[in-house]
Design a protein that fits this description.
heterodimer; A: alpha/beta; 60% helix; B: 5 helices; 41% helix
């Protein structure tokens, strides 16, 4: 899906909108700009959350959310939909231009904030395309983060083993009178541990580089 | 009454090191090194009814049977005098929290174990 040209791919849109007139307009815009589009409508937050919680064959690629529903509105509505949308990008559609609310909702993880009077097919299309590609980018970064965390966690455990052994040997040599022959024995193990640690560090560097 | 000191750790150098540290501190202690949890646990099972003081220094990350496996195996056993200590190279907070599930763990050490830790362990019977 990397070549996301206009109208090339199946798009599945969940429209959470109670006003039938507005819904029909959005539907028209979507059909005009996306050749193959699958549209689902929910007319309140309860049915939307219910729909999002169900397991389904087609997971929506995008959610268009009206901010004034009969059973919920504003930030509370955003919060509720966000907590059920998993990673589906959400674009807010609202009748009112409220800059504060727009800023807040973007901070909460909303992808775009569109004023209904200003929406046209091209604007809606652009906003959806941008949101979807940004979501892909974000999930790639998140996956990379997970890998990094895993490298940091496992390697810090592995690297501590030879390090702790070296410290233990050094403590022992400091605390005790050790015969010449024994010193060579411990030195050999110090070197072996240092080499082991070097291997671990090289592996970490190697893994980190593979992250692209 | 004798003192037995079980060192359960898969790292052979650590086993030798701890054994040497104990030898220097108290000649009367007998050391028994085990390279994994399985051999360590079966040795411990044989000592359940012993009148001796059993010191155990148990590593967490080991092949075959790890430290948690040993601890689970000891859950329902009743020793006369068991002084069990965890020593691990992990500095993971979650390990320390998990160790709290086993009330018979006396203390949790991070590697490397120090001379003063061994002294503390060897004295732990006397404090009681």
């Amino acid at each position: 899906m990397s070549t996301n040209q206009e109208g090339q791919n199946d798009l599945s849109v969940l429209v959470i909108e109670d006003n039938l007139g507005d819904f029909i307009l959005i539907e028209d815009y979507l059909i005009e700009k996306f050749n193959r589009v699958n549209i689902t409508q929910c007319d309140d937050s309860k049915s939307a959350i219910n729909y999002l919680s169900q397991s389904k064959e087609v997971i929506p690629s995008i959610i268009l959310l009206d901010l004034h529903l009969p059973d919920m509105s504003g930030l509370e509505l955003i919060e509720n939909i966000l907590s059920h949308s998993t990673k589906i990008p959400i674009i807010v559609l609202t009748g009112y231009s409220d800059l504060n609310l727009a800023k807040k909702s973007l901070q909460m993880g909303i992808y775009d904030f569109l004023i209904k009077d200003e929406i046209n097919p091209a604007l809606l299309h652009k906003s959806i395309e941008f949101a979807i590609s940004r979501e892909k980018y974000i999930s790639r970064i998140e996956m990379q983060n997970e890998k990094l965390k895993k490298i940091a966690w496992t390697q810090s455990h592995i690297v501590r083993a030879p390090l702790a052994r070296m410290l233990g040997i050094m403590n022992f040599l400091e605390d005790n009178k050790v015969r010449q022959n024994d010193i060579f024995f411990w030195l050999k193990h110090l070197r072996d541990s240092a080499n082991e640690m070097d291997e671990v560090i090289k592996k970490i560097i190697n893994q980190a580089q593979k992250l692209e | 009454m004798n003192k037995k000191f079980l060192i359960i750790d898969d790292d052979p150098i650590i086993r030798i090191l701890i054994q040497k540290m104990i030898e220097v501190l108290d000649e009367s202690v007998n050391c028994y090194p085990y390279e994994n949890g399985e051999t360590g646990l079966s040795a411990l099972k044989a000592l359940e009814t012993s009148a001796d003081t059993i010191f155990v220094l148990l590593d967490i990350n080991m092949p075959v049977l790890d430290g948690w496996g040993v601890l689970d195996g000891l859950r329902n056993m009743k020793f006369n005098n068991l002084q069990l200590y965890i020593v691990t190279s992990s500095t993971d907070e979650s390990d320390i929290i998990k160790a709290k599930e086993y009330p018979f763990i006396r203390k949790f050490y991070h590697k490397p174990i120090l001379n003063e830790n061994i002294i503390e362990i060897l004295n732990s019977h006397d404090i009681k």
